[in-house]
Design goal:
- This protein has two helices and no strands.
- It has one domain.
- By secondary structure, the chain is mainly alpha-helical.
- 9% of the residues are buried.
- The protein starts with 11 loop residues before the first helix and ends with a helix.
- Helix 1 (12-44) packs antiparallel against helix 2.
Length: 76
């Protein structure tokens, strides 16, 4: 369709930036919530309860963060 807006192609620099950002978005919550849960388990003697809660929280927060960050790339 001639009147349809087309996005310009993403260049190599943008792809590298997106890759690093995605890695950061995945790693940061896992480290913070996973290690935070492990620390709480060590302090309270409840292993592995808080570690598992931390990992599940990291998965949910990472999913939401990725969705919000990249939803503009997936719009048609």
């Amino acid at each position: 369709m001639p009147d349809e807006k087309q996005k310009p192609p993403i260049n190599r620099g943008e792809l590298i930036s997106i890759a690093f950002e995605l890695g950061f978005i995945i790693a940061l919550p896992v480290v913070i919530f996973g290690l935070g849960g492990k620390w709480l388990d060590a302090k309270m003697g409840t292993a592995p309860m808080f570690t598992l809660i931390g990992i599940l929280t990291a998965i949910v927060s990472t999913s939401v963060w990725i969705y919000r960050k990249f939803k503009s790339y997936f719009k048609q």
